Amino acid sequence: MKKIFYSILLVSAVSLSAQGKKFFKSGEVQLQNPVEKINLRYANDLPFVQVNINGKSYNFLFDTGAPTVISTAVYTELGLEKKHKGKVKDSQKNKQEQIFTILPEMIVDKAIFKDVGVVVMDFSVSELSCFKIDGILGANQMAKLFWKINYAENSLEASKDLARFNPADYDIVIPFSPRPQKTPVVETDLQGEKIDLTFDTGFSGRLKIADNAYNAQKALKSVEVYGTNSVGAYGAGKPAPGYIFRTASLSLGNKNFSNEIIATGNASLIGNDFFKNFIFILDWSGNKIYMKRIRNEPAKLESFGFGYRFIDARPTVAFVFREENFPLKVGDSIISINDINLDGLDKDGACHYFLNRVENGKNAINLKIKRDGKEMQVKLEKKEFLGIGV
């Protein structure tokens, strides 16, 4: 589990009226071929597609955990008409009222979507702006087709005929229940408890459960943590205590997974650090996900024991493992890592180091930090936590 910090991005529509639920059923799709190959770029543990609207290309996140969304900039450019307003909640349980509208046409390679219901949102919030996202191709739009995804090969295919993807060749079958905006929710049996997980391609992490679902007595091993380990559409949540733990068994559909590593947080999710080891098919007609393993990477937690955010372009410690005598605290300002100056960055510089972390691929790092006006030097070595037999 290389990805503890950050987890990006969950947007879930809530408080939907009857009108809102009907809204997410709108639209239709036309394909030119029985199977359409769709451009996919898997980067920074997230899947992106290029879409065409009114002859202009835009960068959209391919996100099963959200409805289809367009940015306020795109909404303004197109001069679209507001249909209604409704509450939208992000992964940190922050809510805002947003405009809902109808997008007349969106072309994704040779797939033409017409009259799709979309939410209008501002993507300039916090670090999310670094991804330069113009919108989200969400679950309500995906549900009109069958999809086959393979992150390892940047492969995404769409069809109106499930048989084209030979689902009988996939040994893992996971039923799901769709939310009103069509987001798939799968059930797992964890530590003897039934837990609903959002099947979320907009979540860059592996597995997360809500804090109140954690049972310390049933975890094989655990690490206590503190801080903020994810960011949503409206920014990060408040620092809070939590755990990262290894579990003996976790079931999904007809398959049992052993020795998985799970973090606690504001929501229960399964994401891309898990999905990347599989080819998977999304089937909203039968409400099933078909999966076939393509590589076997055991869940592993290696970390320097902290994570940081760029707050107003300043790198700030936001997440720490609660180890005895650990030298960093939430709120510490990072001046440099390995003599690379991170102080006084502009927005572009902060985005560069947010997406291209200085510590990536390193086994040891030297930090210069500032706390209460005083500068300190700290050396950290990467360690494996929750190792089997350790």
Layout of secondary structure:
Elements: E1 11-13, H1 18-23, E2 28-31, E3 35-38, E4 41-43, E5 46-53, E6 56-63, E7 69-71, H2 72-78, E8 82-90, E9 95-108, E10 111-121, E11 135-138, H3 139-142, E12 146-150, E13 155-159, E14 172-175, E15 177-178, E16 184-190, E17 193-199, E18 207-210, E19 221-227, E20 231-232, E21 235-236, E22 240-252, E23 255-265, E24 269-270, H4 272-275, E25 278-283, E26 288-293, E27 301-303, E28 306-311, E29 314-321, E30 333-337, E31 340-341, H5 347-355, E32 364-371, E33 374-381, E34 383-385
Parallel strand pairs: 6-11, 7-10, 17-24, 18-23
Antiparallel strand pairs: 1-8, 2-10, 3-13, 4-5, 5-6, 7-11, 8-9, 9-10, 12-13, 12-25, 14-26, 15-16, 16-17, 16-22, 18-24, 19-22, 19-29, 20-21, 22-23, 25-26, 27-34, 28-29, 30-31, 30-32, 32-33
Notes on the structure:
- This protein is mainly β and 390 residues long.
- It has three domains: 11-161, Cathepsin D, subunit A, domain 1 (Beta Barrel); 167-301, Acid Proteases (Cathepsin D, subunit A, domain 1, Beta Barrel), CATH 2.40.70.10; 311-385, Roll (Pdz3 Domain), CATH 2.30.42.
- It is 8% helix and 51% strand.
- It has five helices and 34 strands.
- The protein has helices at residues 18-23, 72-78, 139-142, 272-275, 347-355, and strands at residues 11-13, 28-31, 35-38, 41-43, 46-53, 56-63, 69-71, 82-90, 95-108, 111-121, 135-138, 146-150, 155-159, 172-175, 177-178, 184-190, 193-199, 207-210, 221-227, 231-232, 235-236, 240-252, 255-265, 269-270, 278-283, 288-293, 301-303, 306-311, 314-321, 333-337, 340-341, 364-371, 374-381, 383-385.
- Strands 1, 2, 4, 5, 6, 7, 8, 9, 10 and 11 form a ten-stranded mixed sheet that branches. Strands 3-13-12-25-26-14 form a six-stranded antiparallel sheet, with no helix packed on it.
- The longest helix has 9 residues, at 347-355.
